[in-house]
Design a protein that fits this description.
Blueprint: H1 2-27, E1 32-33, E2 40-42, E3 57-58, E4 72-83, E5 86-91, E6 100-103, E7 107-114, E8 124-126, E9 150-156, E10 161-166, H2 171-176, E11 180-186, E12 193-201, E13 204-207, E14 210-211, E15 213-217, E16 223-230, E17 236-241, E18 245-250, E19 253-254, E20 266-268, E21 273-279, E22 287-292, E23 295-300, E24 336-349, E25 352-359, E26 368-372, E27 377-384, E28 390-394, E29 399-404, E30 407-408, E31 415-416, E32 418-421, E33 426-432, E34 438-443, H3 446-450, E35 454-459, E36 462-463, E37 468-469
Parallel strand pairs: 2-26, 3-36, 4-7, 6-11, 12-16, 15-23, 24-27, 26-35
Antiparallel strand pairs: 1-37, 4-5, 7-9, 8-10, 10-11, 12-13, 13-14, 16-21, 17-20, 17-22, 18-19, 18-21, 22-23, 24-25, 27-33, 28-32, 28-34, 29-30, 29-31, 29-33, 34-35
The chain binds CU-O-CU linkage and copper (II) ion.
Length: 475
């Protein structure tokens, strides 16, 4: 009798602990692994690959023309250092690092030297559709650059716009610590512009590394392009006072027919950019561009008073802003249609229990590998039912927003590389698979990425020799 009950109790315990143990064990990550072997392949309704391994191209071969000399050539030296009183990182002695300027079409060459960053570093060119070998993802497109080592990036700045660069090794920690900077690509006739890079250093809100209000000298009547870059993990609302303004570009791509915005805040998603055109008033006052917290740019005569912004202003909706213009591709039929469905549930991540993000119902590393062939017209439907907002970022491509919650985009073409998908929202986006490689597609709230909100987009016939683990930690 007693033995019977003990056995029954053991069986009952085993029924709970057994599967838990199995789930725990199944979540353990090997010490090093290829993203090519992770999870399962999702062909989005297209045909699976044939036997590709035999003549696959390695990501290393996907470079800019090696024979072409550089037009912009610089060295960035990374160091561990205190920044705004907290442990962080500098590039050439500052954080943010130097603003890199290029004219559209120029070949940019950046030699990255790791002088003293213990965990190794990389640079990812956020929003620039670089060749895959230059994408800077540790363990996917290169090995992390250890102390005393260097790596040279080369790519053509193919599109005029506002971009940024940041480490993609231990990115949650290193981006937080300020291993980042702005990359500005201007047309042949450069506009009068000012960079407004937002970052928090240990909770201190800064613009271009300066806490609080920063003055930018500009004559009355002057029109300026303010290039807002959000390097933080959450969306910010940018507010302007003292000038009518327009949104000229989002994520490095000009909008069509932008109209004056009155009394609305411009949301800029984590990792995203927005270029605002403001005009300094004739009366000697300054324009205030308020980013988040106390960080603001005051643009105008040095002592000109700057009006306060309206903190209660509603948000501008980019889905209907600007004027429609035909797309370069009709995006009415698709070679692949993927769903990227974000949820959340309890489970294990590398043996640690927690409540983790899911992708199409799966926990990292059992996640989809989205497979495309070069030239495919691709639709991705991102649904977020996870209880929190996610700034989703696809490397190497710009996607156009087709609809949100079933409502078709009705304004300018809205091309994104970073898209805020709020809880309960569904976005349909589309892109052309025109940049072969293995590309991350992840949440740019970087703690979420390190909690497994990461997938990859892979082209048929491309493979990576790199491994995540053993010193390569992309998140
Ligand atoms: Cu701005 Cu995967 O990164
Ligand atoms: Cu997220």
């Amino acid at each position: 009798m007693r033995i019977g009950r003990l056995a029954a109790a053991l069986v009952a315990t085993g029924a709970v602990v057994g599967p838990l143990g199995w789930l725990w064990h199944g979540s353990l990550l090997p010490s090093a692994y290829s993203v090519m072997e992770m999870g399962y392949e999702d062909y989005g309704g297209g045909s699976p690959m044939g036997d590709h391994a035999a003549h696959a191209r390695g990501v290393d071969t996907l470079t800019a023309d090696p024979a072409r000399p550089a037009d912009v050539d610089l060295t960035l030296v990374a160091r561990a250092a205190k920044v705004h009183g907290v442990d962080g990182y500098t590039l050439n002695g500052t954080s943010p690092g130097p603003v890199i300027h290029a004219t559209v079409g120029q070949l940019v060459q950046v030699r990255l030297v790791n002088e003293s960053v213990p965990g190794g570093i990389t640079l990812h060119w956020h929003g620039v559709d670089v060749p895959n070998a230059e994408d800077g993802v540790a363990g996917v497109t290169q090995d992390a650059v250890g102390r005393g080592h260097e790596f040279t990036y080369r790519f053509v700045a193919g599109q005029a716009g506002t971009f940024w660069y940041h480490s993609h090794q231990l990115s949650d920690e290193q981006v937080r610590g300020g291993l980042l900077g702005a990359l500005i690509v201007t047309p042949a006739e450069p506009p009068s512009d000012v960079v407004a890079l937002f970052h928090l250093y240990g909770g201190t809100a800064t613009v271009n590394g300066w806490a609080g209000e920063t003055r930018v000298d500009a004559r009355p009547g002057r029109t300026t392009r303010v290039r807002v870059i959000n390097t933080e993990n959450g969306q910010i609302d940018v507010r302007v006072a003292g000038s009518p303004f327009r949104v000229l570009a989002v994520d490095g791509t000009d909008l069509n027919g932008p109209t004056p915005v009155d009394g609305l805040a411009v949301p800029v998603t984590a990792g995203g950019r927005a270029d605002l055109e403001v005009t300094v008033p004739a009366d000697g006052s300054a324009v205030r561009v308020a980013l988040s917290g106390s960080a603001a740019l005051l643009i105008g005569p040095p002592a000109g008073p700057a009006p306060k912004v309206d903190r209660s202003a509603k948000r501008l909706d980019l889905l209907s802003y600007g004027k429609p213009k035909p797309l370069p591709v009709s995006f009415s039929s698709f070679d692949r249609s993927f769903k990227y469905d974000i949820g959340r549930r309890p489970g294990f991540l590398d043996g640690r229990p927690g409540v983790y993000w899911t992708i199409n119902g799966h926990l990292y590393p059992d996640i989809p590998m989205f497979v495309v062939a070069e030239g495919d017209v691709v639709r991705m439907t991102i649904h977020n039912g996870s209880g929190e907002s996610h700034p989703m970022h696809l490397h190497g491509h710009h996607a156009v927003v087709l609809s949100r919650d079933g409502v078709r985009a009705s304004g300018s073409q809205w091309w994104v590389d970073s898209l805020e998908v709020g809880d309960g929202e569904t976005y349909e986006i589309a892109f052309v698979a025109d940049n072969p490689g293995v590309w991350m597609d992840h949440c740019h709230n970087l703690p979420h990425a390190s909690e497994g909100l990461v997938t990859h987009l892979m082209y048929e016939g491309v493979t990576t020799p790199y491994r995540v683990g053993r010193g390569n930690v992309p998140e």
